[in-house]
Q: What sequence folds into this?
DNA sequence: CTCCTTTTCAAATGATTATTTGAATTGTAT
DNA sequence: ATACAATTCAAATAATCATTTGAAAAGGAG
């Protein structure tokens, strides 16, 4: 078999190294501590969090998950029916762990100033990206869901994320003032959420583009920046809204 | 077999519908027009762009790709050696198509004002997200790469993206002024790139969260917003830099 | 203890799919 | 036209995995 025409100039020399092999170090999070005394079902869920986060749905094998959970290979099908349902339950499980630790509202009442609520929300969205424990799994799983358009995502959005989005938009509307339009809210929301859920915050991307394991101070620094950057953007949008209103109130005369 | 304990409350009623089945409509881009006269290798690359974009690496089968390319199933292995190398060449191919159509520098010379260069860069980064033709494949493939930490990504970053990032940081440094630090540049760069590469701009996410097929006016609206929002963020950062300098110049006295 | 249900287990099944093979076909240079 | 290399093709191979099976073990109620 000829090798020349394959244009393998991007393969490492030797050309037999598999790109997807572990030789190209992945920035894996540490394996979770799984209590061997806990029920098989729970062990499977925690192991599944880890494996699905690491590999996504299709690269994860039931074999790997049950091995990590120290359960038999048939245990997944017994407890969850099939792999798909395990995946579904895993996402819910992970999401609960994350929101239990990082409250999207940061314990603030609905009546707190919008600015404070926005600060709390941004913080709660960014922190899990730097959490190496189980609270960090949601971010990874969500990133996979962004990649893999499954019906599951639609459903999860409607059930769980939609209410959170509505709260978020309410904050923005309050900050942008009474003359803001739906578009104003959507656009500012887009800019802020994009920063909080940025792929650049994912561990294996950080490894290349940012500091791999930022200190607590670094993380706070990033959060403060996103808040400041976003508030500045909102202020700018407010000026646009004001100018628009002025133009509309005094039409061509 | 018992079904109760599976906690299938999130499965559609009937419970036999497969979540990953096409029944949950994916927001697929239209199939590319593949010239049947063009060489098999090119037909395969274009077909691979489409299939890999749609399904990611592991969900894509050589069978599906060769069928779309109207080539024999053995053609991939003949022309590219194996699936991995096909994937590699596909990413390069897609990236070239995209940058040929959307020049990262928008034809501007290095000497153009930083503000204009930034505007051009943001535009070139966002537009492909709304391109349903071949120039849109890069965005999808990159999104997959964000999900799958392969060595390929490291390599592609170094070879191709690093130089572009350096140009980008130079613009920011120019805009932030002489007193800005590396951190200032990194943080602003992070905020801007996160918006331009936002998962929220991906077609199947847009389908849920934004307008599915925005008009040209909508796209321009979004681009203008990101530019404005980002410039406001940069201005804010400049004020922080100025304040920091002031504090440093007149230490506790 | 006995009966019954729930859970675990090792091995088998069945489906999918990347890759190989060797023959057939096409294209090209002499 | 002939020889030779490049390309295409259908069928076979081999590996991987999700899922099933049926027996064994554990647990609980009477």
A:
């Amino acid at each position: 078999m000829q090798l020349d025409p394959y244009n393998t100039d991007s393969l490492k020399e030797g050309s037999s190294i598999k790109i997807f092999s572990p030789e190209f170090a992945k920035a894996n999070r540490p394996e979770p501590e799984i209590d061997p005394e806990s029920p098989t079902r729970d062990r499977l869920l925690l192991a599944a969090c880890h494996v699905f986060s690491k590999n996504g749905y299709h690269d994860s094998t039931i074999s790997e998950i049950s091995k990590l959970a120290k359960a038999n290979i048939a245990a997944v099908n017994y407890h969850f029916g099939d792999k798909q349902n395990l995946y579904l339950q895993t996402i819910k499980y992970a999401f609960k762990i994350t929101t239990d630790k990082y409250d999207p509202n940061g314990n603030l009442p609905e009546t707190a100033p919008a600015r404070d609520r926005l600060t709390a929300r941004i913080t709660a969205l960014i922190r899990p990206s730097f959490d190496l424990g189980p609270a960090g799994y949601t971010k990874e799983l969500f990133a996979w869901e962004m990649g893999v358009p499954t019906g599951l995502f639609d459903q999860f959005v409607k059930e769980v994320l939609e209410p959170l989005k509505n709260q978020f938009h309410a904050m923005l509307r309050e900050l942008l003032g009474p003359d803001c339009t739906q578009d104003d809210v959507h656009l500012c929301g887009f800019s802020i959420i994009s920063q909080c859920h940025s792929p650049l915050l994912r561990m294996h991307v950080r490894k290349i583009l940012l500091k791999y394991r930022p200190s607590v101070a670094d993380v706070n620094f990033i959060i403060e920046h996103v808040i400041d950057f976003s508030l500045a953007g909102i202020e700018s949008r407010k000026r646009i809204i004001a100018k628009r209103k002025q133009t509309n109130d005094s039409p061509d005369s």
